[in-house]
Amino acid sequence: MNAPVSIDILKQHLIDPEICIRCNTCEETCPIDAITHDENNYVVKADTCNGCMACVPPCPTGAIDNWRTLLRADAYGVDEQLTWDVLPTQGAVPVATLATENAGASDIIEPGPQTDTVRGSTVPPWSAAKPHVNLYTHKAPTTATVVGNYRLTDAATDSAIHHIVLDFGATPFPVLEGQSIGILPPGASADGRAHHARQYSIASPRDGERPGYNNVSLTVKRVVQDHDGNATAGVCSNYLCDLKKGDVVNVIGPFGGTFLMPNHPNSHLLMICTGTGSAPMRAMTEYRRRRRLKGATGKLMLFFGARTKEELPYFGPLTNLPKDFIDTNLAFSRTPKQPKRYVQDAMRERAPDVAQLLKDDNTHIYVCGLKGMEDGVLQALKEIAEGQGLDWDALWQRLRKEGRLHLETY
Ligand code: FAD
Ligand code: A2P
């Protein structure tokens, strides 16, 4: 009788470069740094990934959820994956045969249960409407026509944030508040590859920027500096901010199946944002404003940070909303002769009211905007909760599991 052949089989985790919108969510989520990227692609290191699946639910497009079964010795290396334009097809590996012949086949990595390493929820609120995702892809995008493009921030300031309205005409493009779309900017990067899509949160409610019309609005900041403050011209944000009425853009999406609002009328929204992170908050607030239900007890509390009042998008309309509809708290970091104030500071000032919301199982928390704010906001929530005798770690886990803590920073 032949001895069992020891063949090492790998279920290799791969990212589809045709669908991936390079949003970095997977790399941030991975608890063991198994994901990396270059200018071209996001890829998974075969020798590090343990198939924990932590990255799969947060991926807005599903590009992350690709697997190929092959001999471990033939695993695709990082350098090779970085050059891909399309995923390789599954080769013929006699998995069934191996499973019976090979005692070592238990080495196949099967996707395991989700780990607790993700900081926010990977599930939507229980009462969220069901979203449509990935109706249009890189291979088959759709188009929308620009019907409005207005600068929201004061012309005298450095922050150029635009409100851009895109109309889909008769093309179905159903969206929910909290979802995003991908824009395919024209042209190619230095290596000749077409620019990849950039993601933008939808700033309008599900029934349209203009109710009853098939349109969405975006809140786009013109990127003129990179994260280190060096001058640069962001490809897609400059393209969008320069668009004129009547221009046609290539769109993919919609994306996002978890950062969605609850639909039971007694749910509370605790919204914390900076800059363009206000887009989904505007969408949710406007949806609630349009459907104010008599007798509903749901509250809206907003913490919104910007450099100055002139650089806060939607400042006018926001401050005109009735106080009994939304509890708005603004934090400005660069008002001349005033101390620097961040959203976290404003939250601490309102600690008793924030804690009241934290104690209520109907509260859903949304954080969107600068990456850097995430730690500070979670720290503020922890201090506020503990200051009121709440066990933050237990509450945090519960919020995550119940789809009540949503983080989207970029
Ligand atoms: P690129 O050409 O991609 O980058 C140029 C340089 O600027 C690079 O060095 C890059 O590292 C740096 N850079 C990229 N983004 C920024 C930034 N924001 N600030 C400073 N430097 C930057 N943007 C919005 O304006 N509104 C939104 O509602 C919005 N929603 C988003 C939602 C999600 C889930 C994600 C992941 C991103 C979102 N973004 C949003 C960011 C957006 O997708 C682009 O990353 C951004 O517009 C920059 O793209 P770009 O092509 O102009 O710059
Ligand atoms: P700052 O004045 O320190 O840059 P931006 O205009 O760059 O989009 O930023 C929006 C607001 O977010 C600004 O007021 C900015 O302040 C503030 N901000 C910067 N870092 C953080 C952080 N770590 N936590 C909260 N807010 C922040």
TrEMBL record:
Cofactor annotation: FAD
The UniProt record lists the keyword Cell membrane: no
The organism's place on the tree of life at top rank: Bacteria
Reaction(s) the record says it catalyses: benzoyl-CoA + NADPH + O2 + H(+) = 2,3-epoxy-2,3-dihydrobenzoyl-CoA + NADP(+) + H2O
Residue intervals of the 4Fe-4S ferredoxin-type domain: 11-40, 42-69
Segments passing through the bilayer: none
SUPFAM superfamilies, alphabetized: 4Fe-4S ferredoxins (SSF54862), Ferredoxin reductase-like, C-terminal NADP-linked domain (SSF52343), Riboflavin synthase domain-like (SSF63380)
Occurrences of domain FAD-binding FR-type (ranges): 139-261
UniProt-listed Enzyme Commission number(s): 1.14.13.208
InterPro entries: 4Fe4S_Fe-S-bd (IPR017896), 4Fe4S_Fe_S_CS (IPR017900), Benzoyl_CoA_Oase_BoxA (IPR017634), FAD-bd_FR_type (IPR017927), Flavoprot_Pyr_Nucl_cyt_Rdtase (IPR001709), FNR (IPR015701), FNR_nucleotide-bd (IPR039261), OxRdtase_FAD/NAD-bd (IPR001433)
Cross-referenced Gene3D superfamilies: 3.30.70.20, Nucleotide-binding domain of ferredoxin-NADP reductase (FNR) module, Translation factors
GO MF, one example: oxidoreductase activity
Residues bound to NADP(+): 201, 221, 276, 333-334, 340, 369-370, 408
Subunit structure as annotated in this protein's UniProt entry: Homodimer.
Stated name of the protein: Benzoyl-CoA oxygenase component A
Organism whose genome encodes this protein: Paraburkholderia megapolitana
Lineage: Bacteria, Pseudomonadati, Pseudomonadota, Betaproteobacteria, Burkholderiales
